[in-house]
Amino acid sequence: MSRWKTILLLLLVVPWSVSGAAPSGLPIREKALGLVTRMNASLVQLQNTDRKDPDRGGIWCPACGLYHTRAAEAMYPLALEFSMTGNRQRLRQAMAVGNWLIRQQQPQGEWQETPETWTGTTADQVLMMLLTYPIVEPHLTPAERERWLHSMAAASDYLTRVMSNRFASINYCATTAAALAEAYGRFGKAEYAAKARMLARMIVAKMNPEWFVEGEGARVGDYKYGVDLGYNLEMTLWGLARYAKLLDDERVWTAVCRSAANHLWFVYPDGMLDLSAGIRSNKWIICGSGTSDGCHPLFALLEREDAAFGAASYRNMECLERQFSRSGLLGFGPDYDSVFETPPCIYPTFAKAKSLAMALAWSRSDRIPAVVLPTDRDTCRWFRTLNTAVVRRGGFCGTVTAYGYKAREGASSKYMHRPTGGVMSALWLEGWGLLQASSQTEYHRWEPMSFPQMPEVCPLTPRIEMRAGGDVYTNLYEYDATFDFHPTADSIVCTAYGRLCDRDRRPCGIAYGLTHVFGDGMLEKRYEILIQTEREPVRIIEPIVCRPGLEIRVVDASRIDFVCGTEVLTLQARGGSLRLDTDDAAKYRQPYPALTAVPVVIDIPHDAEGARTQVSLIYQLKHEER
Questions:
Q1: In this predicted structure, what is the pLDDT of residue 608?
Q2: Which CATH number fits domain 28-373: 1.10.357.10, 2.20.28.10, 3.30.1540.10, 1.50.10.10?
Q3: Considering only 131-140, 272-281, 610-619, which range has the smallest mean pLDDT?
Q4: DSSP codes of every residue in 425-473
């Protein structure tokens, strides 16, 4: 039989929604409380209740085999559930985990982020204590009240002494500003307000001309640089907003509003947070980032400024609902149970629970706004400071990035294996869902606590690739690509020019042009390969994200159909032959985001005359009557 015979593959993965349809109708607060209650129920199943155990009250992480001190931040969603429902069991559980956290505090007032020794997360922990204390105070014994007050003051003093962008990435500075503003309200200590103001104004000064916050990457001298969309949305901006509200800082509030308006472009129609292009995208889990909190506090604080933030918050909650694993904990992506057989780390669960709890406490609205988000309609936006474009046209919504941030540590840095070079880092299709995503170019466990062990895996990111000996050369390591953005009446065109490089940014004599053309009802990717030296064949790799019941039909060498129900996604090639990569197919699975994919390959043979090779790939979605 022909190698191009029809191939049927049924890919069974965790079901997840495929469109940005109208909200289901639950009020926002009811939706948020339902999610908090669900996550709390999973976390308390892991709480130590042995009265004789020194770790009584701690929340055990089965994935890591230890008690994360940051898991104690679950005290706030537990306490909030009690305050909203009267469930006194949650009150007792909140007090128990708070008392456990106090016992873990170090002599100078800080907490170590077990199993590591990092202490910047003291900002997160003391903030949750400050928010929890008014709820539990009437139910604490006099001795417990004294211990809680002493603990919160000691932690606030520690942050006042040490926190800066020299000490920590920028999101910790913002959380500290919020925490010290809360501490000022509790203790009235002027030093707390002064430090909070200094940190907040410093962060605003580090916003670039498009209001993206710099400061999440590697340190250069005394400061950190680099933008990460996820940590901006899920940590930094809500910390600044909360500080600004508490201490009435209009300058900071105005900056947050401007920044958040640009970040809103990265909320996709189905509520996904597109965090693919940032320097910490190695923790992207589709609904947000794996160890950051969430967008909900920011959107709750801004909903009166623009109803679109309320709509975005609701849709992201719907996205969260699709990420629960069979264990009851949030996974690292919608296909978690297909990638892993064991329960996930508890970080995403308690982090998103506290995010929703803060949103419930700070929101003043309960209606679902009848508004559209930027990506709901045909539109585009090129963020020049990021060399990144977000495009919505004819059903396709995608992010194309050539963000050029470089860490001086090179390939040894966790920030240097992210998508760039003009690639499509995320692609969503109305009526289909997530079509393409991206991941680390090389999977590494940068933080053993947060990155699970994995066998050899291949990146999910669409790419051009050439292998020579043991080296891999790809456009994903081209941090200096020329990027152009050209919208017209008929289409939106994003073009990048660069060279294939290895992990150390050394070129191999192969250049490329990569153009994405968003048209009406189609997406075209135009590749131009310039092979200047005799090397191994070049490959174009187009991974397609798996979804429930997916059927793959290899029609011929120029066309593959991806069929789900009555929807047919056609991938057609001009100037090259399509094939499925059956040799490495099992490797196309990633923990961040937890997705599986089908790799489609186009081989580009070496041309001895050095001619330019041009290949065009066209995606179209059609409805097929059955």
A1: 62
A2: 1.50.10.10
A3: 610-619
A4: EEEEETTTEEEE----SS---SSTTTS----S----S-EEEEEETTEEE
